[in-house]
Write a structure and sequence with these properties.
By secondary structure, the protein is α/β, with parallel strands linked by helices. The chain has five domains: 152 residues, OB fold (Dihydrolipoamide Acetyltransferase, E2P); 194 residues, inorganic pyrophosphatase (n-terminal core) (Alpha-Beta Complex); 86 residues, no CATH class; 111 residues, Diaminopimelate Epimerase, Chain A, domain 1; 107 residues, Arc Repressor Mutant, subunit A (Orthogonal Bundle), CATH 1.10.10. It is elongated and about 105 Å long.
């Protein structure tokens, strides 16, 4: 989902109705709370047996690796190279998926006795295989190259490899072009001719299938037994790469991640243990309290993966692969510490680029209003702009693309871009529709990259926004987040929060549950960590619950004490001094549904009274202001103007005039109309419905009894 949605910009919806009787049967059958029964039902579990199977992962299966296209050819080619003692080179990508892919295959081939080396390009070399890298590997004596997490679109480069006398086996998971490279094998579940039951494997997931197939063939054991053997050795790295590459937590990925997280919990892998311990040192350096973490997909995503990825973004991804291959505790500790240092530098540069990008966006109304934000600069670090694009998308709730140009400012300078999207807008597919004005592009629905000439950036911006305008219009306007359930305060219990963990691991396809609490009054707003975060306390139906807004200042929440709000949140448990209590991890806040309905009713009554309708409804007479009430409103407006706040809403003035719990918005709006008519105050109504007031240039005592508006209101409603 998008990031925090503040008051006034929140776009979240309650879920559609369900069969409550069936959900109750699920709850009763499993002995869980009613809220958990509804959650399981909405996750597709229509009976208690289905829910039980989902929780126990009985519906999952690890598929036969030989169902992948070209797997037999790949295994035969690799085993032949092993038998002939050929040097094998692994070529991988520089992200966490690529690094774990290289590590798993290198460890496995080394165990088989292979003469094996690996090559991970620096980001400055560009994505994928290059002629220079292939020439280097040939000079190092390589005879067979196995690509991991890359290679599917490297048609020309692989042809060049064969010119050098190299053979190539491709393992990858990215989208395939119509023409596949002429390699000895192209193992990819995304192939158009693939009959593999699941296409959502990460690059390291494909490697996992390859080593299982090799284990089966090399030792003549059934594939199920071979898979168990390689799982015991490598499933931790496979899980890390799968989570880091944001693969769907469905089908066999759910089993891979679940087993991998359990393995990491008590890891004896030297490098991985060192990285977890280095996080402790980072926590102390940053002033954070650190305790042994619970190993979840969130911990991998937000703690370990950024440190692994930082190597490829800022320096050399081989540092991360060396860490996973290391068996020397001292060397592993150094490498883990180095990754944390690089990550801190990455964070510093990320913050600088983010500030520059937001300044550019805010300064250009056309970019700010566009359905897809496209912003560019010279010299932004290419390994960082993807993360910044994520932050821009979170801030504005729209797809964004950041482009970094190199060159002397000419129209043919090439810029590399990285984009992030929102659910409902397939960024990779949309870039494909702009193919003729881009040099290259690729990626996934929610994240993609591109290259574009400087002279064609405006054309590309117009094209992608035209596509987005059509798609968003077809979707009915802004794309919103739909919560899993609307919870009553009484359902916000530690027990239910614990039950939610039964659905883990979470990720794409099985997201962390989102809930809404309606009409909760804000009891307090407190800055935390120097106002970097905000803790909110809500009162609802006599209950009190607290929540945390991470990386959101109190001002940025858009709420104050006394506001009635609807809250979008994940449910968590806060542990402090041995006590466990419910905590909301707040994802969005909007005006409470009851407040919105009240405002609409006020607008309806006000419109009727000003238009002269419904004269036979004397109960409307209570909204007609008397002389004393007019004086209260006048003093409140004067106080606002004198304090420097010339723009205000009718609700704000009504609160100042009649009290926070009053219901006098209609009366206030009528009073403001009277002041404008009589030139008692200079009042302008804005397009957004707020008011701008000022003292009139010529002051004179006004006779309110001569007000046409007031006279008509009194006559019509018998005041």
């Amino acid at each position: 989902m998008a990031g925090f949605m503040k008051m006034g910009s929140a776009r979240f919806d309650a879920p559609p109705p369900i069969d409550t009787a069936a959900a109750a049967a699920v709850s009763a059958g499993l002995g869980v709370s009613a809220a958990m029964g509804r959650l399981l039902y909405r996750r597709g579990c229509r009976t208690a047996d289905e829910a039980r199977a989902f929780i126990r992962m009985e519906d999952g299966v690890i598929h036969d690796p030989f169902l992948l296209p070209d797997m037999r050819a790949a295994v035969d080619k690799i085993l032949s190279a092993l038998a002939l003692h050929k040097k094998i080179a692994i070529f991988g990508d520089y992200d966490a998926d690529g690094v774990t892919s290289v590590s798993v295959l290198y460890l496995f081939l080394s165990e088989l006795g292979a003469d094996v080396i690996y090559r991970i390009p620096r980001r400055s070399e560009g994505y994928g295989m290059t002629r220079e890298a292939l020439s280097e590997l040939a000079e190092r004596g390589a005879e067979l190259i196995i690509t991991v997490d890359t290679g599917t679109t490297a048609t020309e480069e692989i042809a060049y490899a064969y010119e050098l006398g190299l053979e190539v086996v491709v393992t990858d998971h990215h989208e395939c072009a119509d023409e596949l490279p002429r390699a000895a094998a192209v193992v990819n579940p995304q192939r158009h001719d693939s009959e593999y039951p699941f296409s959502g494997l990460a690059g390291v997931g494909v490697v996992y299938k390859l080593v299982a197939a090799l284990e089966s063939s090399a030792h003549n054991v059934p594939t199920a037994e071979a898979t168990m053997r390689v799982s015991e050795k490598y499933i931790d790295l496979v899980a890390i790469g799968t989570i880091a590459d944001v693969m769907p937590v469905l089908d066999e990925n759910r089993i891979i991640i679940s087993r991998g997280l359990s393995k990491i919990e008590n890891t004896n892998r030297t490098g991985l243990r060192a990285l977890i311990e280095a996080d402790a040192a980072d926590a102390g350096r940053g002033g954070r309290a650190w305790r042994r973490p619970k190993i979840t997909s969130g911990y991998i995503s937000f703690t370990l993966a950024p440190r692994i990825n930082a190597a490829g973004r800022m320096d050399d991804a081989s540092l991360a692969s060396e860490l996973f291959l290391s068996t020397d505790p001292a060397r592993a500790a150094y490498l883990a510490g180095r990754l944390c240092e690089i990550n801190r530098e990455r964070q510093r540069i990320e913050n600088e680029i983010a500030a520059q990008a937001i300044e550019k966006i805010e300064a250009d109304p056309e970019i700010l209003r566009a359905p897809v934000i496209v912003v560019a600069d010279d010299g932004w670090q290419k390994g960082i702009i993807g993360i910044v694009a994520s932050r821009v998308t979170e801030k504005y709730g729209r797809p964004s693309i950041l482009v970094s140009f190199e060159g002397d400012g000419g129209e043919h300078d090439v810029g590399r871009g990285s984009g992030r999207s929102v659910k409902g807008f397939d960024l990779a597919a949309s870039l494909a529709e702009c193919d003729d004005c881009l040099i290259r592009h690729g990626g996934h629905e929610l994240a993609a990259g591109l290259s574009v000439e400087r002279g064609r950036l405006d054309e590309f911006r117009a094209r992608i926004n035209g596509i987005a305008s059509e798609k968003f219009a077809a979707a009915g306007g802004e794309i919103s987040v739909t919560a899993d359930d609307v919870l009553d305060p009484a359902e916000l219990t530690v027990g239910f929060a614990d039950e939610i963990h039964m659905l883990e691991p979470f990720g794409v396809g099985n997201p962390t549950p989102l809930f809404i609490m309606k009409n909760a009054r804000v009891a307090s707003v407190l800055g935390v960590g120097g106002d970097k975060h905000t803790r909110l306390t809500f009162a609802s139906d006599g209950a009190s619950v607290s929540g945390i807004c991470f990386s959101v200042s109190p001002e940025a929440t858009g709420v104050g004490e006394g506001d009635v709000t609807d809250v979008l949140f994940n449910l968590d448990v806060n542990e402090f001094r041995g006590e466990r209590s419910v905590q909301l991890v707040i994802r969005g806040i909007r005006e409470g549904e009851a407040v919105t309905e009240k405002r609409r009713e006020c607008e309806r009554i006000y419109a009727i009274m000003r238009s002269g309708g419904d004269g036979d409804r004397p109960e409307f007479g209570r909204h007609v202001p008397d002389r004393g009430e007019l004086a209260l409103v006048y003093r409140a407006v004067r106080a606002s103007v004198n304090s420097g706040k010339a723009e205000f809403s009718a609700e704000e003035i009504a609160e100042q005039s009649f009290g926070k719990e009053s219901d006098e918005t209609v009366k206030t709006k009528l009073a403001l109309d009277i002041f404008a008519e009589m030139d008692i105050l200079s009042i302008i109504t804005t397009d957004s419905g707020t008011y701008i007031a000022a003292e009139p240039k010529i002051k004179r005592k006004a006779d309110l009894q001569s007000s046409v508006i007031l006279g008509e209101l009194r006559r019509r409603y018998s005041v």
